[in-house]
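About this split. The held-out portion is used to measure sequence recovery: a designer receives only the structure tokens and must propose an amino acid at every position. Recovery is the fraction of positions where the proposal matches the reference. Here is one held-out target exactly as it appears in the evaluation file.
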């Protein structure tokens, strides 16, 4: 009997103390100004899940601002989902440049992107990464490559993009009112074809004049993977791995889309290898041909890829380059078109600059040379400003190899993951000033009219240090050509009632697309 009384007494005390701690926790939560409450056992996961589908980037930006630049995101205690989240430029400088050797992509990142990038450059570290970087860099800077890219771009714009837009304009003139074009979809298809032309050497026709005819499923598969993979960032690895094993939910989508892509890419690799010895094939400048030719010449200098590359490593290489170029450029273009359409003063200034610097030669798709391109300073500033507010790759992840201390004073243990929010960095008052939320291209231009240099660790959209983006200068060249030609020839107005907001994805796309009315510009 006394034992029974003792047990009842202990149970009573346990429930009273549990009740008191819950009451205290809720009271603390109510008085706390933090946007993410840390719950017992599940950590901050409920707050992340609540915000993940509505305003993931805004939520993280709020947390980063509240914490003064860096905070620890606590996941559930059983899930290994803790991250140090930061938007502090000094931390970026430390991790990406000064102590570069201590930070890799980490096992979790590799697992997340395994079936997509495989051993491709963005998913590798060490020797394999160094070798691929040096090779891709030499191809991109090879004599004639830039011209080749600009020629293929010109060809696709004139042959397809302008005709698609002309169609949209003439339909309006014939009286079919309210014809709206989803420009996000158009530029995404256009960029996919464009990148394929210089990575694979042919145009797969994802954007074609009669878009009803485009049955090409590979481009769609790319888009679907990108949407689905964000889920792997949010839930514990064991959960998405379980779903992957049994083909459930977004994991089913990823495996179906990867299959479609693999069929296409392996087929391209096989055909390319077979045709390599045909006359003039060696002269082709697309990156896949250049890679195969370099293999033949025995230029491999690495254990990883000595001799002829396997079909798998070629597939990984081309997939990675298409992914690196397509989404980044199409995201920048979409946000830029929206920002210009909603800022008439900026639109007016850019048209004045194009007229002044190219003497109006852009009517139709005319090539502009490098000198003319360099003179388009305001356009350059518009691109930087778009990237600042809407970075195509909003996050960057790194994992510590050994213990370390960040300049912000945060102790980093071996294996800790650090998530850089590039989106938040673009909206920090400490970096950009009080008007950081405004779209203001002028902030990039000095009083003398030249571009202001912002250190790469403050503007890490192309990353900083030894792993900075290999496609940066190619991207500016292409974007300047596409934007100047498009804006000079067409006027883009927002469709009525269109709400533009970011979609929570690994790439910063727009949730509801970008519906616009297109008309020919009267110049
Ligand atoms: C607006 C356009 C672009 C932006 C904002 C951008 C941004 C980035 C970022 C943030 C990274 C670092 C990724 C990581 O380490 O996880 C990166 C890497 C890379 N980018 Fe870009 N990129 C752009 C366009 C391109 C284009 C057109 C190419 C085409 C060749 C390209 C090729 C690469 C490659 C090969 C890497 C890997 C570099 C390495 O790991 O050493 N990028 N880019």
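Reference sequence for scoring:
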């Amino acid at each position: 009997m006394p034992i029974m009384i003792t047990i009842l007494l202990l149970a009573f005390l346990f429930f009273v103390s549990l009740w008191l701690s819950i009451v205290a926790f809720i009271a603390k939560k109510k008085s706390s100004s933090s946007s993410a409450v840390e719950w017992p056992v599940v950590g901050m996961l409920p707050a992340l899940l609540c915000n993940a589908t509505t305003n993931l980037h805004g939520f993280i930006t709020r947390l980063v601002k509240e914490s003064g630049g860096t905070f620890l995101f606590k996941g559930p205690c059983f899930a290994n989902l803790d991250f140090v989240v930061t938007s502090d430029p000094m931390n970026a400088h430390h991790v990406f440049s000064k102590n570069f050797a201590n930070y890799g992509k980490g096992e979790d990142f590799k697992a997340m992107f395994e079936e997509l990038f495989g051993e491709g450059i963005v998913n590798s570290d060490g020797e394999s990464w160094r070798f691929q970087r040096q090779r891709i860099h030499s191809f991109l800077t090879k004599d004639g490559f830039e011209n080749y890219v600009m020629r293929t771009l010109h060809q696709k714009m004139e042959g397809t993009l302008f005709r698609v837009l002309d169609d949209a304009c003439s339909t309006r003139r014939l009286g079919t009112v309210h014809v709206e074009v989803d420009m996000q979809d158009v530029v995404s298809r256009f960029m996919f074809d464009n990148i394929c032309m210089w990575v694979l050497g042919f145009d797969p026709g994802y954007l074609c004049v009669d878009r009803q005819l485009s049955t090409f499923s590979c481009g769609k598969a790319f888009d679907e993977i990108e949407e689905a993979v964000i889920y792997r960032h949010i839930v514990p690895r064991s959960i998405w791995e379980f779903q992957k094993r049994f083909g459930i939910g977004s994991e089913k989508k990823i495996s179906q889309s990867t299959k479609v892509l693999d069929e296409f890419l392996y087929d391209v690799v096989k055909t390319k290898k077979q045709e390599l010895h045909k006359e003039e094939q060696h002269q082709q400048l697309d990156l896949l041909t250049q890679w195969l030719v370099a293999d033949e010449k025995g230029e491999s200098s690495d254990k990883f890829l000595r001799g002829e590359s396997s079909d798998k490593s070629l597939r990984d290489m081309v997939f990675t380059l298409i992914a690196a170029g397509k989404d980044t450029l199409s995201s920048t273009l979409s946000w830029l078109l929206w920002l210009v359409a909603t800022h008439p003063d900026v639109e007016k200034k850019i048209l004045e600059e194009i007229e002044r610097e190219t003497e109006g030669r852009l009517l139709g798709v005319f090539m502009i040379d490098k000198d003319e391109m360099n003179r388009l300073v305001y356009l350059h500033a518009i691109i930087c400003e778009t990237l600042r507010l809407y970075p195509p790759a909003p996050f960057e992840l790194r994992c510590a190899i050994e213990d370390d201390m960040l300049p912000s004073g945060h102790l980093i243990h071996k294996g800790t993951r650090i998530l850089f929010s590039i989106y938040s960095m673009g909206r920090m008052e400490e970096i950009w000033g009080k008007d950081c939320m405004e779209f203001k291209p002028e902030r990039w231009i000095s009083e003398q009219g030249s571009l202001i240099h912002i250190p790469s660790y403050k503007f890490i959209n192309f990353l900083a240090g030894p792993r900075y983006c290999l496609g940066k200068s190619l991207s500016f060249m292409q974007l300047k050509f596409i934007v100047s030609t498009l804006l000079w020839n067409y006027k883009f107005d927002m469709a009525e009632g269109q709400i533009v907001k970011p979609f929570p994805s690994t790439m910063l796309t727009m949730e509801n697309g970008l519906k616009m009315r297109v008309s020919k510009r009267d110049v």
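Annotator remark: The mean pLDDT is 85.
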